[in-house]
Batch of 4 targets.
Target 1
Amino acid sequence: MKIAVTKLEEKSGGTHELFRRYGHEAVIVSTMRAAPPADPAPLSRLAGMISKNKIDILVFTSALGVEKLFEKVKPGKNVRIVSVGPKTAKKVEEYGMRSEVIEKFSSGHFAEYLGDISGKTIGIARADVPNPELVSSLTAAGAIVIEAPAYRLAAGDSIVEVLDEVDAVIFTSAKSFELSGFAPEHSKKLKVIAIGQKTAEAMRKHGINPDIVGNGTLEDCLSQL
């Protein structure tokens, strides 16, 4: 199948190869663009705390977050770094550091994975998309959380322009769906796939019921096709 997939240009590496392994062709559509955060102060604050050894655990939910923070500062060896997914971990390695890798991301599971974090200060470099569930789960476990938007997601290309060329579409986040221009009438001739439950929920709110809901990875979505 020829499949449109919403990916940031900066995070699309390896996508074509992955789809080919499953016998499909990927058409990457960047419905979002990475832009500097609206307020650079939180990221500068986090970088300053890292330079003064005031961060115990550093969490990255994307490779782009790694890149944007490490352009400002590199943590010492005493900082525990946790990456969501292998691509994020690989980006950490490119800067000469190692991180623990958590494959699946959910707010409750993440807090459980970190173990005893009472009194620990946790820094999170992320997209400018708040995750109050994650923060509340960490603070409920006794941690101090310092969040810093490392970049923001702005509108990019409309996915509508490629729909006549593809057999299916995979939305990789709620935000990438909401900025895509995709409407209920577009789903009549295509197989529509949500990478995970949050993306599926966003789609349903707009009258689109996905044919497939993955477990948060492209691999799972492709395996279900």
Target 2
Amino acid sequence: MNQIIQKLKTFFENKKIVIAGAVLLILALLVWLFMPDIFEKARIDLQGGRVINEQLVVPETKEFVALEGTTVYQSQIQVPLNPKNNAEKIIVPKAALTVKGGYALAAPEAILWSPDSKPVFIKSLGAVTLDGKSSQWQLAFSSKTKPQKGYEIVIQENLIVSKKEVDSGAIGADFPKNWFDSDGAVKSLQALPQFSEATISAINFFYNHDAKRWRYGIATSIGSTSIAVE
């Protein structure tokens, strides 16, 4: 009799384990479907490094000038150019696009605004990663057929979140045929010994009208620097 009771007890305990496992599996599936960020955060944390989750804000731009593209300002998030270990690595989950990626997304909208639109500058407004990506980009365009007007497009992650005509007297220019992306600009700094201990916080892509060349401007902890793209 005792053996029968023990077998029944074991049977029901096993049933409880199976039911509990099924419930946990269903809960995990529901979280994965409706709260995917939790799984993404866990995946990123396993890689090591400090995860930066930004609260992105669309700027209230009413006008822009070409000088804005040439001036690179330090932002709050400093990313080591040459992290020595995982603790120094900065991971920005919302950083989805490089300069070229941002332009590819915005260019069709700029053409809809004005078929002869030309880029004036592209500026990171969010954190910048070592692969040249940012969580937020501001792109400025000009048009000869719309004097004293410009067009601003703001991208967050990989979506356009704002597009509007604003006042501007800035003049844009065609991109060069062969130009390297923002990841190449970051890599060029990583290779220089004077930047071995430096951090970066912002990237601009702008046209220098005096030299008639496009350049990258990068804000670093030891000052801003610029790199010609060809």
Target 3
Amino acid sequence: MRFLQVVGTKGKGSTSTYIANILTAAGYKTGLFVSPHIQVENERISIDGKNIPDDVLARYMKKTTVSGYFRKFFQVAIMWFHEQNVDVAVMETGMGGRYDPATELDVMQLVITRIGMDHMNVLGDTIQKIALEKIAAVRMKGDVISAPQVPEVSTLIKTTAYLRKASLKEVLPEDIKINEDRSFSYMGISNVMLKNPTSLQYVNASVAIASAMGLRRRGFNITGDAIKEALEDTFLLGRQQYLEKENVLVDGAHNVDSLKFLHDTLKNVYGGKRKVLVCAALKDKDVTYFNDMAKDQFEKVFVSQMEYERCFKNTELAAIFDDEVETVLCSDTEDAYRKAKEYIGDQDVMVVFAGSIYQAGEALDMLTK
């Protein structure tokens, strides 16, 4: 079994899923390990797009020899992939890279998604410190694929790759062509129509294409048709997911970078729509950008909370908004949606859920029963 590792701050789950689906479409039995899950724990471990069955997950959990929620699932994934004779496993890291269990694997390719400010209490209080923790996973003479980065991060990646004699392919924004019909083209894969056609997903999908091209050079038989088919067939839960019937957009954006990408989508894709926001967040996430978004995009904000010890109370989260932003305190996700619908009535107003991947899961559970 061969491994790919995906590190970064934003887009790891999406990019990992795109890469795994490309490998499956190319005929390789492919395992995928991601975190966190959106709706059910089984989403964290899958083979060729099929989640690990409940009974198998329970059986392997009893066999784990490590502590910690994340590491237990990681160990289960490795055991199940070996049992099922997987050809390739795509392993998403947790928050860092230096101490991630996947960094201990013999990885043939490291994929670095966009690095930004998150988990500052653990990884460091500057983007350079955070980047160093993640790019510590670069191997000697390894293959590295990188998403577009801010200049200081790009410099660190280039320097690390040079010192470790690793090959580096950087995805550059100017090389990604966005077409008028919202399809995109990159590295000769043309007119790809994503099911989640947003600015961030064009980047994530382009990184997946670069990864596939790198694997080609290693001898993998991956055709352009397989790449395009896989990307167009991939649907990403809770990633700027628009539910047309309900006129609801659900996104797990939970830091400044991801909220800026969401803001871009709301302006450029749904700019003509009236909107309200339902938000909740964990205390270790910087979601202060909500205030800028609210003043620009939302006519009312419904401030919610979740039953997690690390979650902001609604009153705490409401304090990030200026007085000019109209906020409504809500007890939970269902209460927030009910109050938002009462406010909207028969009007054509979009409800946007954002601030936490956990709230995204709660919203989808509620809306797709």
Target 4
Amino acid sequence: MIWQPSVSMEILRRKAHLLSNIRLFFSERNILEVDTPILSSAAPSASYLNSFQTNFIPLDSLEKRIFYLQTSPEFAMKRLLAAGSGSIYQIAKVFRNGENGRLHSPEFTMLEWYRPQLNFEQIINEVDALLQYIIKTKPAIKFNYQYIFQQYLNIDVFDISDAELKLLARCHIRGVNDNWNMEKNDWLELLMNHVIQPKLSELDTPIFIDNFPATQSQLAKIVKDMDGNNVSKRFELYIGGMELANGYDEILNSDELRQRFKIDNQRRQLQHKTQMPIDENLLASMKAGLPECTGVALGLDRLMMLAFNQKDINAVKTFKFERS
């Protein structure tokens, strides 16, 4: 019956226990739990994100203001960091328009935390420690992005053309045809999702992949690797062939971030998507002094899928989207 929850009562109890253990993990490390607004006057500009928007109309006015449901609590949490909060974490409801399926929902729960005290390697180790603490995983192993493509597709991601990637995708992925025209990063993402990601499940342990191409930096710092390639200080975490988390050595330069936002909006325009307002509060906080920090966003519903041996995200959500 449509009114009933999607989740079993047993999983509901196990969810409560898992959340309690997560809070204990962070409490033992003296990391402060915080709460930030779900609505914002700005939204991420990344072209792969589609935000929900709504209108605020004051009772005594017909004038309306556009607000967006957060796709992540990141921007507000960084403003807290700049204000001197120290290490913080949040268990937040987040929203992404258009995403719905076995591993996706328009509304889901994200665990996000930031650590001024930890460098890039240390934050990876902390994610690994959390997984072992919460769901008893094996110790993780780590590969860089270039190696993983060499290993599974025998290509160098820094020395391959868009046309070659397109041909490779057509050979390996059913349904890709010659009419598809995408950017290099889109082809790489397609190959990662459909070819490499399923193979990672065969390793039967958590996998961290780091040193993404600089063009996939998002909000991470950019550095040179040992071969002189520009790479982003960013990692993704995979377990059982499923992406679970994304982490950064966070960019601190507000002018550089503003430029990235502008490039994102140019890309959105080319894709006939709405351009997003730039979060001036975030940029102002960065100018005021965002500390050196690393951060992680982890899909909590997917973590619960792994913990409770479920194959569909709706099995761990109290009410699936269609019953909202």
